[in-house]
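Protein entry
_____________
===
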Amino acid sequence: MAMNTTIGVIGLGLMGTAMVRRLAGAGWPVLGYNRHPRDIDGVNCATSLAETAENTDTLWLMVSDYEACRAVINELGEIGVHDHVVINSTTIAPSESVEIARRVEVLGGEYLEAPVLGSIPQAETGTLQLLLGGSVALASRLDELLRALGTPTHFGAVRSGAAVKLAFNQLIGSLTAAFSMSLGLVDREGVDVDKFMATLRESALYAPTFDKKLDNMRDRSFDKANFPLKHLLKDIRLFTHSAATQDIDTHMLIGLQHVLEEGIYAGHGNHDYSVLYESIVRE
């Protein structure tokens, strides 16, 4: 795909903004669009979805959920989708991605699933992992563009990329909750946390995400969110529903959902997801 191809990034939240800046910085012609208009330095922004489609060849979705994806595609209609490639990086269920793909194809467009593993720092540095589902030929055609944001891995047909994304985000929630409980016990028992962490790092039980969120938890500082708590709750619910359709027991996640919901009710929805420590290890 040549760099004279214009990319329309739809959804300029935390990740969408980081992605559109990265693409622009890498030399790709980009046009941003957000339902609630916002200005982004160095990036031209459209005032409507119709304007976005009219002036671009590829539409890259990074919106909140399935309903938002469906609303965007329905508003674009055949005029907006026909002869366009639609890349969808929204975290949705596998079955939901299949439905969006069908709608895009009926309207005369091509669809590639491309949810991402990583957050704002990785988007800004082009080190995201892109989890692809869809046509091998389309993924190959888009390879240069995808690599502007990170490393693409093709997992199979549409729904496979969405499934892998939910699998990873389930680990985000479960690992963070498990670490919160262990850290909380060690701290409350008066154990030296630094010694605990040094031993953990040398064991097979260690995961880098523990150190990534350690300072947040120890300082109870959760305001700066690369991935808000409310989005993690949405993804855990999606995983639970999707896994249940595959005869996978998800009872363990019911407790995690309750913890996440408590955090939302306590007003932490827009805080970093590590704030679930606050619900598990109460002050």
Observations:
- The mean pLDDT is 96.
- Residues 160-188 form the longest helix (29 residues).
- The domain at 164-280 is CATH 1.10.1040.10 (N-(1-d-carboxylethyl)-l-norvaline Dehydrogenase; domain 2).
